């Protein structure tokens, strides 16, 4: 069956549009083959004729959202534009910043009068972004959380969790009588433990602006008041970081993990610092695999004393039935 000229015309026009990378913007309401009505099948991405079944257009681009909504409230909640929202910014990333470049949309420099006007707008924009004490509090605290997390090498999910914990503490009025830095550090410490990337109190105190004693008190208060489910730190969670910082082999990490598992089965982990146990396990694992590392090097990485490593690694080897 030979195709009609009208049909050939549609096919040639479609091929030209595909070669040029252009999109068909005109709506075709009439079938070029039989003159029947056409409809758009969004499920299959096709435009077909209701009467003869001719596929007029295929592989059309779906310009709608990738999510589905079943009522207006859900649609408003899922609808978004621009960058995703984040709890790490005091305004959740929804505000607008005025660029610091004194240029217009075409890249031309602004006049002195326009520069002064833009500077006034930037000033007032910043004032409106932090127009009350709560917003200023959040801006300072979330900046501290991001700074400390960067210094400790904590991932994005830990920072988000710490931001949520601090927001809860602020909403429940836990800040009076305590420093912003103390609560922010406590939130980050709790978030790191909850995410399985714990850091010791000594490490937190190094990057924080509060003393270790104040950090300990504030952390216990925040966990108790917010009912956070923070499990005791597992020594195994420290092993990958210590082994990586000391540039040891995977075999050493495996042996260290085995030592901790044996010690746990023997009941030797109760009441002992998980950081000290992890450091001792790394040192003992290096001895068992004939890798050269000193107690001082392990202690510097784990921020524990050589005495702690010496006492703990002997206990770990005894649980393994290996002579120290």
TrEMBL record:
Zn(2+) binds at residues 31, 34, 49, 52. Keywords: Metal-binding, Repeat, Transcription, Transcription regulation, Zinc, Zinc-finger. Residues 24-34 have a biased composition (Basic and acidic residues). InterPro entries: Cyclin-like_dom (IPR013763), Cyclin-like_sf (IPR036915), TFIIB (IPR000812), TFIIB_arc (IPR023484), TFIIB_CS (IPR023486), TFIIB_cyclin (IPR013150), Znf_TFIIB (IPR013137). The keyword DNA repair does not apply. SUPFAM superfamilies: Cyclin-like, Zinc beta-ribbon. One of its GO terms (molecular function) is zinc ion binding. Sequence repeats lie at residues 143-226, 237-318. GO terms for cellular component: transcription preinitiation complex. The keyword Transcription regulation applies. Residues 26-57 form the TFIIB-type domain. It holds the Pfam family TFIIB. Residues 84-95 have a biased composition (Polar residues). GO terms for biological process: transcription preinitiation complex assembly. Residues 1-34, 71-95 are annotated as: Disordered. Stabilizes TBP binding to an archaeal box-A promoter. Also responsible for recruiting RNA polymerase II to the pre-initiation complex (DNA-TBP-TFIIB). Belongs to the TFIIB family. This is Transcription initiation factor IIB. It comes from Haloarcula limicola. The gene is tfb.
